[in-house]
Amino acid sequence: MPDISIDPLTKNAFAAFGDIITLKDAPDNLINQGLCGRHHDLAALDFGPDGRAGISLFNATPRSLPYRLELVERHPEGSQAFLPMNQNPFLVIVAPDEDGTPGRPLAFHTAPGQGINFNRNVWHGVLTPLFAPGLFAVVDRIGTSKNLEEYWFETPFTVSGDLK
User: Fold this and answer.
1) Is the separation of the CB atoms in 6 and 159 below 8 Å?
2) What pTM, to 2 d.p., does this model score?
3) How many CB atoms lie within 10 A of CB 94?
4) Using one digit for the tens of pLDDT, what is the confidence trace for 90-121?
5) H or E, element range at 14
6) What is the C-alpha separation between 125 and 99, in angstroms, rounded?
């Protein structure tokens, strides 16, 4: 199996695939009698012309490293945001599109409290928490058209490394 190392999730490394949802250095404004900092508009959500935003809760079983990557998926009709409901880092896997199929995957780990938003039509791994609980709020497209493509790798990848 080919190996993929895990890198920290950074804005520059992830920019082609989506948004990192995290606190800014300073809030955009203070609300609630000055006791709450609002960090506004952190992701470019996209639900297409016939979709709408939906909020779901996902409760995923944690995975362990090394992780066997056999499958990626993408959503051609809308973006998909994952917001952890805990402070545990999780594994984020993406792959560039190469003429309709995924190229060599990249693996990242989030910092505690970071969420991510995959752009529409980006190849990505399944939700991969590394610690329990694997509870996430997910904001994605609700609609009637097919919004899931899966791609199974002929030769699986091994994702391994330290959470630096």
Assistant:
1) yes
2) 0.93
3) 24
4) 999 999 999 999 999 999 999 999 999 999 99
5) helix 11-14
6) 18
